[in-house]
Amino acid sequence: MAVAGAGKNSFQDESPASFSSFSPFNIYILTSFRSIFVKASPLETINKVISGIAALTRFPAGELRLQDESGHDLPGDCPIGLCGLDENNISLRLAYPLLATKHSGACAAANELVSFVTKLLSTGKIKIPGFLDIFTNLFRKFVDMTPTEREEDIVGHLHAFIFSGAHTALGMLWQSPVIIHRHFALYGLNLFLELNRKKFPQRFDFYYLPVLLELADEFVRIAGRENPLYLQCRKAVGDLLCSKNWRFSGHSNTENMVPALYPFVVDLVEEITMSLSTESWFLYFYRALKKLKNKLFHCLGKIETFMAEKAEGEVRFLLRQRMNILDVLFCFHKLCKIFDPKYGFVSSLIFARRLPVNALIRHADKSHAYYWLLQYKEALDFEVKERLLMMLFADTEEGGYRYYYLFINRLHLLSDSFIQIGQVNATELHAELSVVFKDEEGTGHGVTREWFYLLCREIFSPKMKLFSPCEIDRRRFFPNPTSPFDRTQLEHYRFAGRFVALALRHEFQLGVTFDRIFFNQLAHKGIDLEDVQDADPALYMSCKKLLEMDEEFLDSDALGLTFVRETEHLGYRKMIPLCPRGEEIVVNSRNKKEFVSFLIKSYYVESIDQKIHYFREGFMDLFSNIKFENLFFQSLNLEDFDRMLRGSEEKINMNDWKNHTVYCGYKAEDQQIISFWKIVDGMQEEQRRILLQFWTSIRFLPVGGFCNLPQKLYICNSFAKEEDNWSLPTSQTCFHQLQLPPYPSMSIMRQKLHLITQEHVSCTFGLY
């Protein structure tokens, strides 16, 4: 069925009730305010036609009736072809019976207004003061009758204004060639809008919108989009939508109302486009950005005040309700790119309101792409940066798999892992990782964490020769400059990159970190002499002495230095030029800085750049988008990356440990629990870490300590008996459970705990 009103776009209803095998009927619907043309199939019912008219006029379909020329209602469920109508000339009248009975006063007032306009148009000479008073009083009479309590009464009253054709009467005045008639039309519209603005209850302003839209439609139909009547209606619609009490949610007819606003959006776009073609657009744009910034500053300030005054639970609830502020901030960020490429507007706002911004990000859904905030990393807390960086990794759904299983033989830990991690399609690694050791029953997160720990020891061990430890800090590594450049070795660097990214994605602290010469090159930053201080103290001191050496002595060539460096491989010494014809260039006071720069580049850039390239490729395989390659490392400094990779460097806090432990089968005051904590208190730090690893498969706590673990720790009574020779404690690392037998004395418990805190025992998943 197609329905069209004068000056409106037709729409086609493609429901199954339309049958193309029948010739459609042309139907003219007469109303007091408009003629509507309908093209419908003979098999379509009267109710179907009414539904189309209701969508066009915004009247409730259930209240409308169609009448024939004799004034009789046509049955709603009757097909048009069976209504006994002359198919060559069908003219029907639209009726709104309930309106005429329930809102008879409103209909009468609106009809009086229409009659007066008709009289005004037919009068040759107009007495302006008298006619204007009558015109004003008629509008006041209609508006004063507006109900203010019940929704259905308000809607019906407003429908009476439209159904009577009062808005069409104003349009007729505007179309008149007499200038005074046009003045009356504009005055009448402004009066109607002003009176309703004062009269209407704000909680019911949603029901005023359809009247404004109908007025706007009528004035566009008669005079286009440039006439003052339409522009006034458009302004009224904008004022209504911008009011602080306006809400779309909760109204049943919102779905029909939103498309009616599209023409206003088109108008807005056209006006903005025209404004951009003038020189003044820059100033307007600047003012708009400044206004938006002030609004965001105010909103974030209110959140900051709320955070300072309210309880944690209330704050958490508010933050989850205000996540849309981050979306608005993103729009502000994108707009500022046009006006302010350096994002000074945005950075000053985020720095000024860093507390609420950080709080909002902490409570944001990880599925949302808020990683753009990493551009303002200086204003972000470490935990917030870490959360945003986790958003860069591919989700399980993106990879297309639920779990990716690794089947590992402990005797071939490295080779099995290399094949199943380094030699597979990267998208398989986007799934959740699950590790199963051959001939062992244990599965779950605890086993996976143990695999991470054991494989990390293998990859960074001296026998692999992939990485070299720093002289000063043996837990800080960089690619081995002397390792071979064969294809297999390079693929192992790609494998190592994937492994480290997997550890970060699964939030496992490896307990190792990267040296600055490694990290800087991953972030595409240069390195200088200060960066090699930890990796090669001997080279650092030699270069420092050279740079500080007496210039006269250096220029005497007493050292005999040229732009070459010496290497030794398999007992053979080799001289490598640092630059073309370097063996002929003598080091002196003028080129000593250049010599040091070339020397560092040769040792720690050219010798490892290809290895870093393969490592970076493997690392980036775990990201959802290749464009994140630079964003990840450039959003961090070395200290941040250390905290993500190594975890907390602080000693284990015993009070924190106790507070995050729950007892099953024991009570905190039981002698076994008191003895247990006394023994752990007396352990050395390394023994405590081994116990923690035996218990949870976690050797290094995340930054923030036990409170940032995914769950509590448990000590459970295993109910072992003396005839079982008081067996050793066991653990279920997936659930952070330590199964502790009820030992009869502290000495027996100390002996058992001493056994499980040996390195070779803690790495057997609680089995001895």
Task: Provide an overview of this structure.
With 768 residues, the chain is α/β, with parallel strands linked by helices. The protein is 51% helix and 10% strand. It is built from 33 helices and 17 strands. It has a 6-stranded mixed beta sheet, with helices on one face. The chain has a 4-stranded mixed beta sheet with strand order 14-15-17-16. The protein has a 3-stranded mixed beta sheet with strand order 9-10-11. Helix 3 (104-122) packs parallel to helix 5, helix 4 (128-144) packs parallel to helix 7 and helix 12 (281-309) runs antiparallel to helix 14 (324-339). Mean pLDDT is 80; it is low at 3-21, 248-252 and 764-768.
List keywords for this structure.
elongated; 4-stranded mixed sheet; 33 helices; alpha/beta; disordered C terminus
